[in-house]
Amino acid sequence: MNVPRKYGLLRAIGTILKVLAWIILVVGIVAAIAGLFSLGRSTGLTRFVALTGVIGAPLLSIIWFIQLYAFGSVLSLLIDIEESTRAMAAEPGS
After folding, report:
1. 50 in a domain, yes or no?
2. Domain count, the chain
3. What is the DSSP letter of 91?
4. Quick check: is 81 in a domain?
5. Mind listing the pLDDT tens digit for each residue in 33-69?
6. In this structure, how many other beta carbons lie within 10 angstroms of the beta carbon of residue 75?
7. Which domain holds residue 24?
8. Dihedral (C-alpha) 75, 79, 82, 87: value to the nearest 10 degrees?
9. What is the pLDDT of residue 75?
C-alpha cells in the first residue's frame, strides 16, 4: 500500500488534541492533590471551596480527557479510512 499521505494538518490537530487531553488529565489530578493539601488547613467557606475543587477538578478533567481524546482518535480514524479507500481504489483490477 504505497499511498501518498494527505491531510497533514488534520493529523497534527488529532495529535495535538490527544496530547492536550493527557495534559488536562494530569493537571486535574495535580489540582485535586493540591486541593487535598489545602483542605487540611482551611475552615468554613474555604473548606467547602477546597472540597469542591478536590471533587470537581478530577471529575471535569476526566470528562474533558475523554472528549478530547475521542475527538482526536476520530480524526485519526477518518484519515486512516480515507487512506485505505484510496489504496483500494488504486489497486489494479478494481
Report:
1. yes
2. 1
3. S
4. yes
5. 888 887 777 777 777 887 888 889 899 999 999 999 9
6. 19
7. 17-87
8. -160
9. 94
Could you give the count of Cα atoms lying within 13 Å of 81 in the half-sphere of its Cβ?
6
Judging by beta carbons within 10 Å of its beta carbon (0-12, 13-18, 19+), is residue 52 exposed, middle or buried?
exposed
Q: Return the residue matching grid coordinates 504505497.
A: 2
**Residues contacting 62, CB < 8 A, separation 6+:** 25, 28
Q: Residue 17: count other Cβ atoms within 10 Å of its Cβ.
A: 19
Q: Is residue 93 situated within a structural domain? A: no
Residue in this structure with the C-alpha cell 481524546, named with its chain if needed: 69
Q: Which three cell numbers stand for residue 78?
A: 477518518
pTM surpassing 0.90?
no
Indicate left, alpha or beta for 2 from its phi (over 0: left) and psi (-120 to 50: alpha): beta
